[in-house]
Write a structure and sequence with these properties.
elongated, 13 helices, about 325 residues
Amino acid sequence: MLEVTAPAVETQLDVDFADIYQNSSLYQRNQELIKELSTPAPGSKDLYFPTKYSQPFPVQCKACFWKMHWSYWRNPQYNAIRFFTTIVIGVLLGLIFWQKAQQTAQQQDLMNLLGAMYAVVLFLGTTNASVVRFVVAIERTVFYRERAAGMYSELPYAFAQVAIETVYVAIQTFIYTLLLFSMIGFKWKVETFIWFCYCILMCFIYFTMYDMMVVALTPGPQIAVIVMSFFLGFWNLFSGFLIPRPQIPIWWRWYYWASPMAWTLYGLVTSQVGDKNANLILPGYGTMPLKKFLKDDFGFEYDFHLAVTAAHVGWVLLFFVVFTYGIKFLNFQRR
């Protein structure tokens, strides 16, 4: 049939099968049948569905979270690398900065302790951001197919992905915190331990969600690596350790507050040593209260805790919202 009805064959035969069909009785019968089937029966109503999806929003969230749970549980390579890296980095940093929190009499001792907090935030935070992108990219491909089938909307999927990551990050934070808090030698006080856990937990969450957000906004993991590395360099530079905030040029100082790492380092330092009034020995300058030294040289104020808490929540919510909207409005699927 395809050979006979090809344009070249029709030209040879001098026949137009389309005209023959339109002038046939079969065509007339088909048109009458289409008109009959297109006319609704008396008393009938238009087909209507009260919602776009078959299940309500809470059920979608539950189903997506359960799906993500099994997806992560059946990916032991990713989880094993995550926890193995946590233990290795925690032990190494603990040994390198062994009991440094007990030595804050000299300026160099204090700088060593600040370096320990800076390393605690940087090493594992960037590691989390580096490994999650491949998992998110694979899950996004599955999401495209299931969303096209009308199984669930974008928000339950984003909620489930963030929720399951938060669960694993919380376990990771607990292991990491126990190792470092004891090995570096911080004081075992409920308030300081909770603050340490909070800052580390929120730090790991926003690092992870930052990479998830970048993956949602880019076509693939390769481009995501370039974008993520570019901004992580600025986060690191303006974290307040390499260049303290009072020494940053005034026209660049705004970016200090736009660096999530700066807020985490601020919270860790002030919560652990920011309330100490013991004298700090400054070579060539005599002594100065430790609390005053942190304020004058680094801009760290102990009474800034509430702002630090709110800033961490704000960064997490920002990355979550952008990740959700990126998943919703950007589709990089190729057929």
